[in-house]
Amino acid sequence: MAAVLMLALAMPGGAVARETAGYLVAGEGLDLAAILPGPPAPGSPRALADARVFRDSRTLAGTARWQQATADVSSDLGDRFAGALGFRPDWSKLPVTRALIARFDADRSAAIGAAKRHWQSPRPFIGTDLPICEPRTASLIANGDYPSGHTAHGWGFALLMAALIPDRAQAILGRGRDYGDSRWICGSHSQSAVEGGYLAASAVFAREQGQPAFRRDLAAAAEELARYRRGLTAASRR
After folding, report:
1. pTM greater than 0.70
2. Rounded to a whole number, what is the distance in angstroms from the first to the last CA of the chain?
């Protein structure tokens, strides 16, 4: 189970995350198609703006921000958020926090997957030869653009960790927004899909608040992280 949970932390919306039981039973989850605005209609002002942002942001290729977007393709959020957290989590020493995140991710992944199947919107790079910061794999192409699961994965993590470590909330949330923006900078997602990812994760986070088990685990994880951070501080003073 520990191995499954650690893998779930590193997947933006894959099967492993769904193997972990979430906080919401069947029928209790959110229908994101009824909440999010959805991908813009072809030819609409927003669709044209998405296309322009994709085209214009290709000039970032090779820059420091492009390199960051490339690194942010990784779903190892402990590593990618280490600077904002103030430490790199050793998940083997944080079983309660790890389980909380994995269960939240199961609900987030299920909601995102259903929304992607509903809209089946194409990614912005399809039909062009313009560069993106990751390989154009068949699985990437087949996995719809809207909403961005990678963005929702990072923003959901940011919301959880900001609640668990409130003294680092500003840095964590700023990094969460930056992590999501890496997706349209990379070119793997449209800007509207990234915005949909932020909204999706926020909606799931709000829905989880109504689950007693989630609130209980959130409180327990906050205590666990506080002890863990005290241990890190003590170790640094030796």
Report:
1. yes
2. 34
